[in-house]
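Example A, followed by Example B.
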Amino acid sequence: MSDDYLIFRPDDVDLTRSPLRGSIDAPTYVLGAFNPGLTRLPGGNLLLMVRVAEALVDPVDGDCARAIRWTPSGYVLDRHPVSGIHMGDPRQFALKDRRPPLLGLTSLSWLLPVEISGDARTIVKVHYDKAIAPSASFLEYGVEDARISLVGGSWWMTVCGVSAERHCTAMYHSVNGLDYKLLGVVLDHQNKDMLLFEGKVGGKFMALTRPLGECYFAYPEDSPWLGGPAIHMAQSPDGLHWKPLDTPGIRARRGTSSTQRIGGGSPPVLTPEGWMLIYHGVEKRESVGVYRSFWALLDRDDPARILRQEDEAPLLEANPALTADIAHQMYLPTPVVFTTGIVDAGGHYIVASGEADLACRITHLTKERFR
């Protein structure tokens, strides 16, 4: 097997065991099984926390589009008149003539723990009994994009919670890496891609964040930086209450392909040189954009001090050869690789990514690549 391959695909999901099955009779399919959180379990195996985006086979019924929503009594299908929506992105639709935009999703996401071997080569067990599905109103439209960090002997997992109330970051916690308890909202509306450092700094938890919004201000024309969504940092005494740092974090630079936005990818891991992390940069193209992975190195004692930012040559790009045999399932118009996890494997790193918002990709990278 090569050092770059797909480990889990949409057809690997058994939807008869989906958490939606008890409520919805309408047929569904796996739009994507992707963007997996990654961690090492106490016994040495690895855990992928796979995002399963489950979509309706027939999203349009008569003159209405339908969206799946969780409620305390089960899942329901909301109806939106087709005449009142616009779809420019296959992952979502927008209500017409609404400012700020009001969106609906073409799928609902839940998390599936997939245990794989310590070398990330084979699937050991798919833990349907430990799946993480919406369980609160702030998760009513889905639980997305888990990132897992081992800090102080326990596992902290951030997710993006989607609801009409807020688009937030929620926190889960585990004492064994496999069973997770929901702790609630930790960052409010549209602060995405939060991931904790794998270790404390000055006795405090540290995290990358990425606030979004509709209004950004331009840098001067002679600035090396581009405006727009960027990676910020925050610290916490307990992992639940977060104070943003005053200094800026990692920003998109002029002359690079990250012209639309950047955001966190893998949890920062401590190396002899400092905190190393992989992040994503987006090049504006069509409705979705091209996603690539880059990396940066932060000072071990003052992570706001960026020692190195490798944002010209990508660390990872989408690889069409990996998805050639499932190309008929692809729905995005542009190439996407979205890194979501990393573990130390001795002489190299094992990196987990979402490929094409469709499947889970594993890449083995030598540590020399980051020097």
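Example B, a separate protein, is given below in the same form.
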Amino acid sequence: MNDAELAAHLAVEAGTVLLDVRASGQFEGKALGDAGDETANRYLVDALRTLRPDDGLLSEESKDTDERLSKSRVWIVDPVDGTREYGEGRSDWAVHVGLAIDGVAVTGAVALPGLDDGIVLRSDLPLQNMEFSDTPRLVVSRTRPAQEAVAVAKSIGGELVPMGSAGAKAMAVVRGEAEIYLHSGGQYEWDSCAPVAVALANGLHCSRIDGSPMLYNQRDTYLPDLLICQPEWADRVLKLVREGAGAGTD
């Protein structure tokens, strides 16, 4: 299978593994989150090392090494994006399987196994004819809404939509459930690589909040901010951020 098909297959299968771990009843709360992280990571890492042995690999749940830095192709995965939500039995968590080539997120799949339809969003199968609201909706952390997002929402007359994981928030924009995802305050490459690949394939704007591009497979994997939005909102939101629409964490 090609890279996009593989990314989707692995995201779906890891999601199934995670649902099985949760349904087993052996764990709850933080212990469930830890068990899910470990089990899904083992599945993804083993599969990628078998099926793409010449590529680099970066996973949130595996010790990083310098080996990937010499690779053009690097898989960047987050076995459970939103471990807290997963452990709490919520639906707003995700599985990220992304591929960066020469630092650019080109291929990705984001599975949302907790939803009733268990959807997987893919960079090779963009959604069609999505409808968006005239009133901009901004997805934000359900526990720590970024001050930038709060300030931008106020400036543009937007509505805040609390949600869990980064992947769930990014895919809400892809699915037409929100117009803007503005994040600041701390993320890593695995939090955004697959979502950015899917968002770009769906014609969305993706950048850092200073307007610079999202770059991956860097020595320092800290990638603390991003903007994913409908293209017509990008310039206005970036301008508001430049003008100092608050500061905070998401």
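On Example B: Residues 209 and 226 are 5 Å apart (CA to CA).
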